[in-house]
Amino acid sequence: MKVASLSAPGGIDRIVFRDVADPGQPGPGQIRVALHATSLNYHDLLVANGGIPAADGRILMSDGAGIVEAVGEGVVEFQPGDRVVSCFFPQWQDGLPSDAVGSFAGTPGDGINGFAAEYAVCAATAFTHAPRGWSDAEAATITTAGLTAWRALVVNGQLKAGDTVLVLGTGGVSIAALQIAKAMGATVIATSSSDEKLEKVRALGADHVINYRQNPNWGKQVYSLTGAGVDHVVEVGGPGTLAESITAVCVGGHIALIGVLTGRQGDVPTMALMAKQARLQGLVVGNRRQQQDYIAALNQNGMRPIIDRRFALDQLPEAFAYQASGAHFGKICVEW
């Protein structure tokens, strides 16, 4: 079967398309999936460009969606023909995070082989059902970006109608968070450096928009718009944006620290955070039960992901280059 793998030490120009042995039929507790789509995340880009070291020949991509071809002995949750989507942490079924998910050692496309492949044979518990009526490309956006947004707002944040949510930028997590927040009756403030993208988020329901390049002190503007600060911040920037997010959050509010787009470390205004008595919580995606809950909600509310562009599998390097340019709005998907 055809796969897209990475030659060490990494780099988009070191993505190799090669043929490997078919994984065969599923054993007890396993399913065989004909994969048809993946979606790009910042984590995938870091692996591909060598920012996160991976084993030589690692098959790329954490997200995978496709159709069950066969089920092994003892599998009752799935049957051939079911559309499924992978889990970011296949070893994390439910409950609170533990040492097992304190690294990416068990994450597809990083510590283990990923889903840039025609077929996969995995434990049935490494997948969930996809939302009804979704394409494989749409379903692939759930594994990382969609579930991250869901956990940040609904699981950890306990989002409720009438809350105010700040989303930073217009990547996959932020757009999913915007959609979830609006579906649950929240007010949303969105930031971007592009007026064109801000018009797009306004069309998706954002109540207020801020161009952070034109207003580098956007935290104060957010605070002014709300009168007391926002209840939730979906913080994908990291050290370069965290101080402004702390300014923007209300007393007793919640900041979900998700991304490191501006760097991996930096100063934290601890006095300001303490004065706000805000909760700053780091998170990395979520567990299988949370993914199932998210998909149950998607089956009810009719929400669909925003896909900016679609590429073929042999265009994966071009897809990563487009992602690195920052020009995308929402998700980038690869289909085959």
UniProtKB/TrEMBL annotation:
SMART domains: PKS_ER (SM00829)
MF GO annotations: oxidoreductase activity
Pfam families tied to this protein: ADH_N, ADH_zinc_N
Domain Enoyl reductase (ER): 10-334
Cited InterPro entries: ADH-like_C (IPR013149), ADH-like_N (IPR013154), ER (IPR020843), GroES-like_sf (IPR011032), NAD(P)-bd_dom_sf (IPR036291), Zinc_ADH-like (IPR052711)
Gene3D superfamilies found in the cross-reference section: Medium-chain alcohol dehydrogenases, catalytic domain, NAD(P)-binding Rossmann-like Domain
PANTHER family in the record: PTHR45033, ZINC-TYPE ALCOHOL DEHYDROGENASE-LIKE PROTEIN C1773.06C (PTHR45033:SF2)
Protein name, entry field: Alcohol dehydrogenase
